[in-house]
Amino acid sequence: MAIARPTHRRLFAVFDHAHGHLSRRAGAALAQVEIKPAQAMALVYLGYHNGCQLSELADGVGSNNAAVTGLVTRMEKAGLVRRRALQSDGRGKSVHLTNQGLLKREQVMDTLRKFDEKLSKNFTDAEMDTIYKFLTISSHLGSK
Amino acid sequence: MAIARPTHRRLFAVFDHAHGHLSRRAGAALAQVEIKPAQAMALVYLGYHNGCQLSELADGVGSNNAAVTGLVTRMEKAGLVRRRALQSDGRGKSVHLTNQGLLKREQVMDTLRKFDEKLSKNFTDAEMDTIYKFLTISSHLGSK
DNA sequence: ACAATTTAATTCATATGTGTAATTTCTTGG
DNA sequence: CCAAGAAATTACACATATGAATTAAATTGT
Fold this sequence. Notes:
2 copies of one chain form a homodimer. Chain A is mainly α. Chain A has helices spanning about 10-30, 35-50, 55-60, 65-75, 100-120, 125-140, and strands at about 80-85, 95. Chains A and B meet through helix 1, helix 2, helix 5 and helix 6 of A and helix 1, helix 2, helix 5 and helix 6 of B. Chain B binds a DNA duplex through helix 1, helix 2 and helix 4.
């Protein structure tokens, strides 16, 4: 057999392609609750780690510090979160959900729950475990 | 069992998180051949569909028409591709790899091949089939 | 204590993606 | 042929991501 493991070829290209389409679909769904995907992801993460620092949020949403600075600034302007200086470390700042941010997060969670169901409904539990494992490992290949 | 299919929860969030990290890693690898991920994806696609129209390229890289206009403009400026008017349809334009673009594409393919190998080495063929199926289906949930 | 290093956040220039509107060019029904 | 609609591309405003450089604050080695 001359062609080995053909389905494994161009894995990143296929992954990136899928992300482009999925991200657009998710964006359309999230537009119904008037929020952009990046801000929605930040809201979801903050629900589990409210009051974390900007750096942690950056890693939590798969982004970097520079991107999160702008993201949090826009979200602050929209009244979804607010920064607070750390007493323990003069360099760091923590990010906190406002009441409005909490409310928006619930709408986001509802929207994403439906979206996730559509995404996973054609797969068995075992298959989803494999997919989840792949995504998790990919996130930690070189977190730095 | 109160908690059903826990690993399936927050699927899109996990996917987006993984893409963020992977994309950064790929960007670092591709920086060695001095090209950005989006342009690299376009080069890869054009290798298989040289001379296609902008619209087809947009779908091929999981993006949209407006994004591709700017992308092709930057790539044209970099000497990697060039636009050509269609004789058959005055509205459309086709995109063609230059010799420089072809050369760059080979470097990109080498870089991505190594990257893909790292990504897939912890999975069996059967698991990769599942992952590939998930990514492919995700791309076609609602292409438009 | 102090200089060198490290770390957190920011700023900047640039690249990229998205929706909406405008432009130009087909295509089609009357 | 002409008006209406559809299609391909572009223009525009804005949100987002990245690397590099900057600033301020903490840490470390001596």
